[in-house]
Amino acid sequence: MNHHNVTSEDRYIKDLKSLIVNYNLYDIIDEEYYEWSCSINNNNNDNNNESIYYISPIYKICDKKWQIIIKDINNSLISLILRLVPDDKIKNNEKENVNEEVNSKFVISFRNHRYFIPKVSSFYCFNKENKYQHEFIINKNTFKNDIVGFLIDENSKMDLGVYIQIYKENVYDYVKEMKNLIKNDSNRKIIGEDLFECPLVNWCSIGKLDRSPEFEIGGNKWKIQFNRTNIKKNIATFKLINSSIGDNTEFVFVNLVLYIRKFYELHSDETKVFISFQCFNKTNNEYTFEKELNPGTKELIENGEAIFGFYIRVYNNTVLF
Questions:
Q1: Which of 258, 240, 248, 249 lies closest to 306, judged by CA?
Q2: What pLDDT sits at residue 229?
Q3: Is 127 exposed, middle or buried (0-12, 13-18, 19+ CB in 10 A)?
Q4: What per-residue confidence (pLDDT) applies to 40?
Q5: First to last CA, the chain
Q6: Mean pLDDT throughout 212-218?
Q7: What is the DSSP letter of 96?
Q8: How far apart are CA 177 and CA 168, in angstroms?
């Protein structure tokens, strides 16, 4: 697992913030960092539950209460959960707050005085539907050896921190538009889904790639690419790459939505392309989609720039169909 150097406290906070890829697409209404020292082991006696590695204190960031829980899923996987703690009005089901939604991106950071290992979210809305919690899935051996074993000090402790950005409320409606385009789940078990966007700045240049940084959805690491392969015929190539294949993973099953939208308009008339079920594996860890774009797509391009992205839904990889 990749680790980053801690050169100074100020630089460390700036490095965490830089991992939250926003591109000024969403209006930030608050952002903050919180950190504490913790001891993580296999048998947390405070919780009387051997499957729980750690439960953090409830802390306050961006005027909201939060908590981190680390626990077993099975013999090979760990669940890292960031939980928004509902206020009393939500708990008591009072009408004015029962559907509170918190739009965010965040980084959970494990660290010591020399190194830090981040887990970075893509866009996520904490709400009643997802029980106000976000889950990262981590390989158990990776967690024990490459995170805890690598970072703990002589007192079996390390620091655990969270950097969170909170966005305006209108973003989640846009994410739900993408989510609702996927219709054919049948009885497949969803283990994660989310949206990731990337600026498209090389629209007028043939052969030049627009690349996203690596991001994580459904316990898998992904990258997306775009380039114009034929300007006269208005042909564009979009590529989704799974960089987790081979890392204790043989198959990854997903449904995808690919779209383009205007750079500064979240709810413009996007070009949406539904892409059916796909299987990523060791011999085919990327999906390439080539399309001749219709004339309406050009209206989405302003000064050679637009936004392209994928909504990715990941299924349990033990289900073959």
A1: 258
A2: 62
A3: middle
A4: 75
A5: 32
A6: 81
A7: G
A8: 17
Q: In terms of pTM, does the model score above 0.85?
A: no
pLDDT at 36 over 60: yes
Mean pLDDT for the stretch of residues 144-157: 86
Structure tokens at 42: 């296999």
Q: Please report where in the chains the tokens 């906070």 appear, as a residue.
A: 13
- What CA–CA distances, in Å, run from 19 to 104, 212, 214, 293? 13, 12, 10, 32
- Both tokens assigned to 96: 């004015």
Q: How many CB atoms lie within 10 A of CB 298?
A: 11
Q: How many residues appear in the chain? A: 321
Tokens 């494990």 locate to 110
The residue assigned the tokens 């559907």 is: 99
CB-based contacts of 255, cutoff 8 Å, min separation 6: 182, 184, 185, 275, 276, 277, 278, 312, 313, 315
Distance CA 214, CA 204 (A): 25
